[in-house]
């Protein structure tokens, strides 16, 4: 399934390239603005045409051309078969309703739906084709199908879920400071309005990119996230001061929630490594037990080296066990196994001693409290020492 997912993603990605691409010269008539492709112009009056240089041209895009259409059909059939078989077997597991509304199964359904919709409405009107193009975008959800088998994506989703508060804080900081600095940069960089050009212009005559606060938000977000495309930039002194404040606030304010997210990711990663180590240790013990329990192996053929235990069982010498294991496995691994088993036994013995000690201490405390409670009624109280005259 992983290979089919990768094949599907690679197929519709490469299919977005045109089948043919070439370059041609573009000429524009200076008086009529007529556009002519190619280098042969008849007639060619002097200075009547202006060349705009070579321009890229390509054929109309067809994502279902061979072999991409066949690959898409093959992948959809595999995805559909898997989805239906798991749906039919869901009553024995989570149930049909739980299966249908599980987020991973919803992604599976959305990823295969566009192919059937396109098959039903193929050859329709232009409005239907435009809707199909939007539906076809949902194929990108197949990337998330990998999350069921890719531990890295599962780790990322778990981290984001645990960092929901930090993410909300990040977006809140981003929204507040974006509006704040967008308002400031708009105030100092909007320029003056040119009635003839019908736009705000700067002192050098170039149009101002900061014509409104919403249009200034793009510059604020790009600057605070330290991307800096350079498509918009301040030119006045006060605008540059605002830009410096925006950059510093982006570095300081946005880094605080990101630190929390990074710490959660590190914690989840350590937990994942711990689980993997435990799983590897469990598999190693199972392999070791299988190798010791095979009929006819060296461990069962050393009966002469056993002795009777007090409870009537059989006990093997540790050196014999190590020798037998050395015949089966690598000596280094056998030594490591002996050390691990010794540590585990020591921990079990320590836990048993602590439990016995706590039980004895608890029993002693209960006995003291019981004897103390039994003698309370026998002790005289201040009221017993009072005389009748004193009471009067």
At a glance:
With 392 residues, the chain is mainly α. It is 60% helix and 9% strand. The strands form three sheets. The chain has a three-stranded antiparallel β-sheet, with no helix packed on it. A two-stranded antiparallel ribbon has the order 4-5. Strands 6-7 form a two-stranded antiparallel ribbon.
Residues in β-strands, percent = 5-15%
What is the radius of gyration computed over CA atoms, rounded to a whole number of angstroms?
39 Å
Order of helices and strands: HEEEHHHHHHEEHHHEEHHH
Structural class: mainly alpha
> N-to-C terminal Cα separation, in Å?
99 Å
Q: Widest sheet: strand order?
A: 2-1-3
- What's the shape? extended
The total count of strands amounts to: 7
Number of helices: 13
Task: Calculate the mean pLDDT score and round it.
Answer: 78
The parts where pLDDT drops under 50 for at least 5 residues are 295-328
User: For the record, what is the CATH homologous superfamily label of the domain at 2-20 and 59-149?
Assistant: Voltage-gated potassium channels. Chain C
Oligomeric form: single chain
Largest sheet: 3 strands, antiparallel
CATH-assigned fold name of the domain at 2-20 and 59-149: Four Helix Bundle (Hemerythrin (Met), subunit A)
Identify the CATH architecture of the domain at 2-20 and 59-149.
Up-down Bundle
Roughly how much helix do the residues carry, as a percent range? 55-70%
CATH uppermost class of the domain at 2-20 and 59-149: Mainly Alpha
